Amino acid sequence: MPTDILIEVGSKAIWITLIVSAPMLITGMLVGLIISIFQSVTQLQEITLTFVPKIIAVFLIFLITLPWISSTLIIFTQDLFNQIAVFTKL
After folding, report:
1. CB 81 within 8 A of CB 9
2. Comparing C-alpha atoms, which of 68, 66, 1, 61 is closest to residue 25?
3. What angle do CA 39, 45, 46 make, to 5 degrees?
4. What is the CA angle 28-31-34, rounded to 5?
5. Is the pTM of this model over 0.85?
6. How far is CA 47 from CA 23, 28, 30, 65, 86, in A?
7. What is the pLDDT of residues 11-27, one digit of tens each?
């Protein structure tokens, strides 16, 4: 398998990983920012206040985006297997 094809497959895999993980990462960042602002305004420094809402929000976004994530990964995997079948015939 030529190196340019390997680089293309690797970069596509990294890109898919970033796209698929973006909703959870952005949600965690936004919830963390909101909680940080709330803690600085109220001067309430409870450690569980930072983790529990983030975990719940990220889990809910994961459940909401799960069909899209699975279809994206299935399409990528099918394309990868099709490319492997083509290159084994060469």
Report:
1. no
2. 61
3. 110
4. 145
5. no
6. 24, 16, 17, 28, 53
7. 999 999 999 999 999 99
The tens digit of pLDDT for each residue in 40-88 reads 898 888 777 888 999 999 999 999 999 999 999 999 999 999 888 777 7
CA-atom Rg of the chain in angstroms: 20
Contact 58, 28 (CB under 8 A): yes
User: E strands of the chain, at which residues?
Assistant: none
Long-range interactions of 6-15: CB distance < 8 A, separation 24+: 9/80, 9/83, 12/76, 13/76
Contact between residue 12 and residue 76 where contact means Cβ atoms under 8 Å apart: yes
